[in-house]
Amino acid sequence: MPNGTLEVIVAGGRRLKDEDTFGKNDAYVEVYVDKKYKQKTTTVSNTNDPVWNERFTFNLHHGDDTIHFDVYDDDIGDRDAIGKCKVKLKNVFDDGKFDEWVKLPAMLGLSSHGEIHVIMNFRVTIVIHIINEEMP
Fold it and tell me: In Å, how far are 3, 9, 57 from 45, measured between CA atoms?
C-alpha cells in the first residue's frame, strides 16, 4: 500500500441499536488504523441518528490496509459497544476517495446495529531524493 495522508470524515449515524434502558444513545466513534493511535468524535447525546461531521487525518505507511470504526454509547462511568466495522483501504486507494454508509454488523453478520456515514480521501506522499554532488 502506498504512503500518504488519509482524511476521514465521520459524518453521522442512523438507526444505531439503542443501548440505553431509558432515553436514547449518547454515541461517539473511535477511529483507528493502529490501536495505539485512536481518534474519537465528540459524544452526541440522546439520539440514535447522530450527526458528527468530524474530520480526522491519518498518515498511512506501507502495510496499513484497514481502518476501524468502533461505535459506543457513553454512559456515566462506563460505555456500551453499539457496533464495530472496518473498511479495507484498498477501496480508498483505488479511487482516491470513499463515501458510503457502512453497516455495523451484529453477531454473524445476519443483522445490523445501524450504520455510519464515512467519507475518506487519500493523497499519496511523493518522496523525492536529491543527490547533492559537489561541482569541481
Answer: 37, 19, 25
